[in-house]
Amino acid sequence: MALPTLPQLPFERQDDNVKALISELVKRINEDARRIRVVEQRMDRLDNSISALQDDTLTQLSDLKVFLDKINNKIITMSEKLVGIESEILRLNKELTKTATKRELKEMETFIDLVNPITSKFATRDEVERMIQDKLAKSKKA
Questions:
Q1: Segment-wise mean pLDDT, segments of 10 residues, the chain, 142 residues
Q2: Which end of the chain is more exposed for a tag (fewer CB within 10 A), N or C?
Q3: How far is CA 130 from the centre of its chain?
Q4: How far apart are CA 85 and CA 109, in angstroms?
């Protein structure tokens, strides 16, 4: 909408034109003020949205940091446990070198079977003396 031009003719009423001009200017200023208010409201909503997003992001980053700290602590704990397990395995390996092998156990089993009084026949001292006396008696008779 174009602004009304000022009258060129001397007989025209300048009062009516000035009022019309002022009225048009007020209307345009009001329209511009309304548009500025709408833009400001949009900017406020955008600012609020951005602030909410920043708050959410900071909260999520804080939660992520706590979570990563927990994971780090678990990894450290697991690492310490692994070191303990490795040292225990080394200790067990040293102990295993001190234990008997299958072959040695078989030899011990054979030796025990040889000296086992239940399966082996041993003579008592009295029996050996009696056998000697019997042999001597038989040899004297013969």
A1: 54 72 95 97 97 97 97 97 96 88 88 75 83 89 75
A2: C
A3: 84
A4: 35
